[in-house]
Amino acid sequence: MAKLYFYYASMNAGKSSTLLQADFNYRERGMATMLWTAGVDDRGRPGWISSRIGLAETARIFESDTDMFAAIAARVDEGPLACVMVDEAQFLMREQVLALARVCDDLGVPVICYGLRTDFQGNLFEGSAALLGLADMLAELKAICECGAKATMNLRIDEQGQAVREGDQTAIGGNDRYVALCRKHFMARLRR
Q1: Fewest beta carbons less than 10 Å away: which of 34, 60, 97, 131?
Q2: Model's pTM, two decimal places?
Q3: Which residues does 192 contact at the CB level (< 8 Å), separation at least 6?
């Protein structure tokens, strides 16, 4: 039985690198994969999954209205598909997560999603919430806080390094930056 996996972490934990390594392992063994990334993530080249350590691979782009099941089913009709991998999975809509679960159940293709669990205010993203509820397997990748503890939170900071407490859930690019912190230091920086 194919399974739906969700690998989640704070920023800078190597989610994209892990995805690209898994993709390489499949392809090295002659197995076909299908990669997806969020259209809203326009930091790099559109249609590419890139890691901070320099790995990159082309991917299909999903938007909030992309019919993931139809696109993957069409690809399966072309020939064997060993795995579907989704980067920036926090940007999936709940309906898309349901469609990915259906890919596993109806098409027999495993789906591995990688993404953030929470936003800069500690709130779940829609896609992450759905994956936390529906995935067969959950795994947390580890990032490190400035204190050396496991980082589980994403703090948005301005140009002066001060915590940003309000704003849109998604702010890609612009002047805001993010810092991965443990919960203790995340909460302390928000109280300053």
Answers
A1: 60
A2: 0.91
A3: 162, 163
